[in-house]
Fold:
Amino acid sequence: MALGHRPLNDGPALRVAVIGPTNIQRVGAAAGIAPHVYIDAAYEVGRQLAAGGHTLIVVPDRGVAVAAMEAYLDEKGRHLVGICPSSGVSEPAAVLGISKWRDRCHEVVADCSWYEQHHRIGVLSDRMVCVGLSCGTVAELAWTKWTPGPSVALVRSTMSGLPPELMAEVSAELVELEDVADWLVS
Structure:
């Protein structure tokens, strides 16, 4: 199936990116949020996306993306798109993460750099769900201003707060974890 076409099913099928920190230990320590909070929330979002028949889009590196991906695959999600940057500077752990998880994706997008990935994830998505914040996650959120961006659900329990300046310029709202599925189709 071409990336721009939605699968036929009984409900609305969306292309949904799940974004969030890769190094949940580091950002969790800074925010006072236990790592399991990110993993549990990302896993639940992945499960909800599979149950809803939606396409999941992630950068299959580590942390939040991998937890969402594992849940999506455990729940027999139908279409997992992995954005696997093929050039540019990244943490060495990111390159290892991508090589470990890319083969689990149903479709791989590799024609971008690590820098371009921040824009690409928004372009490919109808909606985004943000589970926690990190520098890379904030970059992905910021790019939704110019994409023009998909709407973003920010899972409240996974972040210490949000800069009001960011919220003034992107289409994002705080959502409780249990309300993500309803937000997707609202």
User: Anything to note?
Assistant: The chain has a mean pLDDT of 91. The two ends are 25 Å apart (CA to CA).
